[in-house]
Amino acid sequence: MFNFLSSFPTIILTFISGVLIDLFDRRKMLSIIAFFSIFPPLILGILTQFKLITFWQVTFLAFLSGCLSAIDTPLRQVFISEIVPMSFLTKALSFQTLSFNTARILGPFFAGLIISYGNLYQCFYINALSFIPFFIFLTFFVKTLKQREIKKIEKKEIKRSYKEVYEFLKREKKILNVIFSVANFTIFGAAAMILLPIIVHKIYGKGGKEFAFLFSVLGLGAIFGASSVIFRKPISDQIEHLFKTTIILSLSLLGLNLTKNWYFTLIFCFIIGFSFANFFPVANSYLQENTPNHLRGRIISLFTLAFLGMYPIGSLIAGFLTNKIGLHATLFLYITFLFFLNIYLLGFKFKPSKP
């Protein structure tokens, strides 16, 4: 129930948020979202400190955070394209991936220290405070590139904006193929990571400590993957890069499925994390670079839906299949769909234009 309510807004509200992103000033909108994001962890901290917390309060606050995230996630992606030149967009998005995965590794570590030497509610207060510098910096210091003119959608044309996206995707099949490839990569690639605890427990007979270490290795691989995109030469053929990354992830998942050696499992998880950080930012960059500015919010909202919205669906299917046909058969089935669908979408169906 908790996971469903926290992810439900991403599935339902993401595309609506794309219309809002194209309708209103993006910097002001991001400032407002940053401001309201302070309150869920702040309220959670107060309720926890005074021992008033209940399951339904946590669930409601998770739902509220999910609603804010459904707007915030695509909005941040699009806003990056307004503060950096397009030639640096892929690197900028990879920097974002780098910071996210660094925080994902360091966050639980510092939270553990705070809980050990302090109190749980202090973590929520610190989380709330973390939004304030971003809000101030965004409101008073960040300036968008002046040379970019943003075509605004009239409020009376909101319904027509959906048709506008449909016509654009119908005309630009390459954009649609990349969005579908992201959804496929998420459902059958990223969502397969929900099976890691089962791998740790059933194959190696280990517990939470080893799973946490495996998860950290996954994040470390993502950090190296993002760094490899940031510090390399600009990617000349983004579709070829996505194609190769799909192959690498498929082979890594296959190795993870076949090996019974703990150290090989760590290596494969590192490569899997590396693949994630090489796929999603590059796909995001391709979509933004090839989409008109007045449509960018709606297209990136579809990317976010394919990226984050499909994850709980893929996880749910993986859990169901594991109970029915077993761990190894489920992983093999996921690898098969991941490999062949993306080979079709990015290889046979996608015909990149020659320079």
TrEMBL record:
GO terms for molecular function: transmembrane transporter activity. Residues 1-354 form the Major facilitator superfamily (MFS) profile domain. The keyword Aminoacyl-tRNA synthetase does not apply. It comes from Thermodesulfobacterium geofontis. Keywords: Cell membrane, Membrane, Transmembrane, Transmembrane helix, Transport. This is MFS transporter. It is a multi-pass membrane protein. It is found in: Cell membrane. The keyword Transmembrane applies. InterPro entries: MFS_dom, MFS_trans_sf, TM_effector. The chain crosses the membrane at residues 6-24, 29-47, 53-71, 124-142, 175-199, 211-230, 242-258, 264-287, 299-321, 327-347. GO terms for cellular component: plasma membrane. Its main location: membrane.
